[in-house]
């Protein structure tokens, strides 16, 4: 009876040969797929999202009157008043209808008043060139 219990309680680890470890060839090959998967996820998912968030933060910091914005609730409006010391922005969502929204709830800046509406405004005409 005691030999049956010993057979049941003996783990396969006791039967394996000693040696090797994480730094052996087999250990590195076992970890390599996980490292590769993390690298793929980082470059395809994590990094682009970080770049997008950084760009949105810079757009929100440069927010000014006349910018068309989209709020997280799906409302499109035009910025009417920006207070530098406050986190609130006054947005006109319809003719004569203005609401105060938090900067953090603006999900994107659709058009900016800082950029020209067409390419011809950015070009310079010089007859001597």
From TrEMBL:
Entry keyword set: Cell membrane, Membrane, Protein transport, Translocation, Transmembrane, Transmembrane helix, Transport
Entry keyword annotation includes Ubl conjugation: no
Entries under Pfam families matching the protein: YajC
Keyword flag Secreted: no
Cellular location(s): Cell membrane
Protein origin, superkingdom: Bacteria
Membrane topology: Single-pass membrane protein
GO biological process, one term: protein transport
UniProt GO cellular component terms: plasma membrane
Recorded family membership: Belongs to the YajC family.
Function comment: The SecYEG-SecDF-YajC-YidC holo-translocon (HTL) protein secretase/insertase is a supercomplex required for protein secretion, insertion of proteins into membranes, and assembly of membrane protein complexes. While the SecYEG complex is essential for assembly of a number of proteins and complexes, the SecDF-YajC-YidC subcomplex facilitates these functions.
Subunit structure: Part of the SecDF-YidC-YajC translocase complex. The SecDF-YidC-YajC translocase forms a supercomplex with SecYEG, called the holo-translocon (HTL).
Entry protein name: Sec translocon accessory complex subunit YajC
Organism field: Komagataeibacter rhaeticus
């Amino acid at each position: 009876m005691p030999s049956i219990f010993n057979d049941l309680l003996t783990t396969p680890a006791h039967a394996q040969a000693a040696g090797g470890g994480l730094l052996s060839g087999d250990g590195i090959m076992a970890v390599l797929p996980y490292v590769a998967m993390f690298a793929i996820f980082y470059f395809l998912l994590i990094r682009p999202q970080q770049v997008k968030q950084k760009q949105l933060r810079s757009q929100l910091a440069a927010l000014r009157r006349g910018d068309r914005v989209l709020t997280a609730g799906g409302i499109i409006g035009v910025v009417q008043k920006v207070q530098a010391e406050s986190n609130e922005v006054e947005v006109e969502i319809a003719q004569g209808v203005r609401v105060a929204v938090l900067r953090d709830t603006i999900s994107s800046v659709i058009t900016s008043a800082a950029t020209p509406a067409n390419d011809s405004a950015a070009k310079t005409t010089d007859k001597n060139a």
